[in-house]
Structures are given as C-alpha cells and as structure tokens.
Design a protein that fits this description.
94% of the residues lie in helices and 0% in strands. It has 122 residues and is mostly helical. The chain has one domain. Helix 1 packs antiparallel against helix 2. The longest helix is centred in the last third of the chain and has 58 residues.
C-alpha cells in the first residue's frame, strides 16, 4: 500500500505533466495563430495592391481597349498570387495538423509513462 508521501508525489507528477502539456499547447496555438494571421495579412495586401494597380490603370490608360487589357493583366496576376497565398496557407494548416498530432502523441506517451510509474510504486 502506498504512503501519503508517495500518493502526493504521484499527484504532483501528474500535475506538473498536465501543466507542461497545457503550456506547450498554448505555445502551439499561439504559433499557429501568428502564422495564419501573417498569411491573412499577406492576402489582404494582394487585394490592396490589385486595387492600386486598377486605379493606376484607369488614370493612365487613354483607350478602352488598353484599359481592358490592363485590367485583365492585373486580374490575372492577382489570381495567380491569390492561388500562391492559398497554397501557403494550406501548408501552414498542414504543418499545424502535424504539430497538433505530435503534441497529442507526446501527451499520451507521457501519460502512459506516468501511469506505469504510478502502478509500479503501488
């Protein structure tokens, strides 16, 4: 039978392990959030840049055909850049998925070790 000191030590170890897991999850959440906000900001920048180019084209071009061609070029470039940013955001989410999976697997491993250690102490 375990003594009170052993029981308290086991409880302490579970508490510390739980706190560390929560802390690392918080850090993972923050890193993921920062990366996603960065991609969102970059994507918003694409909209702004395309808008500026459209305004520039409408003020500089004299003929309607040239204006249409300039608008089509801006739209094409914007679409291509948007696809690139979408792929980058998808990569961020894939990386986050892998990080969360790794975090969960590590948590299960630590918990299993703690339980085994606790059972052996009994």
């Amino acid at each position: 039978m375990k003594t009170s000191a052993v029981n308290l030590e086991v409880m302490k170890e579970f508490g510390v392990a739980g706190f560390e897991a929560a802390r690392s999850l918080g850090e993972l959440n923050l890193r993921t959030w920062e990366k996603l906000v960065e991609k969102q900001t970059e994507t918003f920048g694409l909209f702004v840049d395309a808008g500026i180019e459209m305004v520039k084209a409408t003020t500089e071009v004299k003929e309607a055909k040239e204006l249409v061609n300039a608008e089509m070029a801006v739209a094409k470039q914007f679409g291509e850049n948007l696809v690139v940013k979408g792929r980058e955001a998808l990569q961020v989410t894939n990386d986050a998925r892998d990080d969360y999976r790794s975090w969960a697997e590590q948590g299960v491993e630590i918990f299993t070790k703690q339980v085994n250690k606790s059972v052996k102490a009994a």
